Amino acid sequence: MSAGHDHGHNHGHDHTPAEFNSAFAIGIALNMAFVAIEAGYGWKINSLALLADAGHNLSDVAGLVLAWGGALAGRLQPDARHTYGWKRASILAAFFNALLLLLAMGSLAWEALGRLGSPEATQGWTIIAVAGVGIVVNTATALLFMRGRKGDLNIRGAFLHMAGDALVSLGVVVGGALYLWQGWAWIDPVMSLAIAVIIVAGTWSLFSQSLHLLFDGVPGQVDLAQVRRLLLGLPGVTEVHDLHVWAMGTSQIALTAHLVLAGAGAGTDAVLQEAEHELHEHFDIRHVTLQVESAAYASRCALRTGTACS
User: Is the pTM of this model over 0.85?
Assistant: First the structure.
């Protein structure tokens, strides 16, 4: 006997893409306008720090577009060819966004190291003014996503990324101030290197987590040993095998398992109901599929050794 349930339709945060359509649109428009301003002034005054931050903000626009697209794709209904729908689009988008950002920062760091050998003068006040606008834009964009940051990984990623960008822009302001104060021409490439290091440090986690999830790794917030103990603690459950936990997308976790019951058939529905409730409450696992077996059937179930049940 088996049962599967998806509780996702009963919780408000699954409507996040619809609720945050305007936030994504405003955030993308604000950041595109700022990228144009920052890149223009960076080119005009030959500031690598401004150009670096403009490149990063452009990648953030791409990140917002990918997050928006992934969120909307996750709402597409499953069909006969895609029985889970397109939920994994958000994971794939996060992976490619992180990969492109890491490559861009590597290129930036190489250019900054080259400039350290022959630093060039720049315009401190222009840097301060433009980066100051960046603080405002990035903070405003982060605030657009603050409300949904606890309910959806995509939204939380957008919030944290934009909040981090506000801090990076603050670093550029500090660099401009130091140039005005001390006249250090080398401060611009040094700040560029610092920005690259900060972004790589922040992006590496996104890269490794998205790669992990792409290969059906157990999501970081789920302790598989605790899940197994929870299932083994259910009334009548004597064994758990063929346990799998993976991410269907950035906001939904799935689980499948075989439960061996003493005297299977008696109280099966109660066991399934309690299992679904506990997995939801403790691990936020909403898509649960459980197969209930008797001890006799389980003894013939070769899934425990990696093949199929006979």
Answer: no
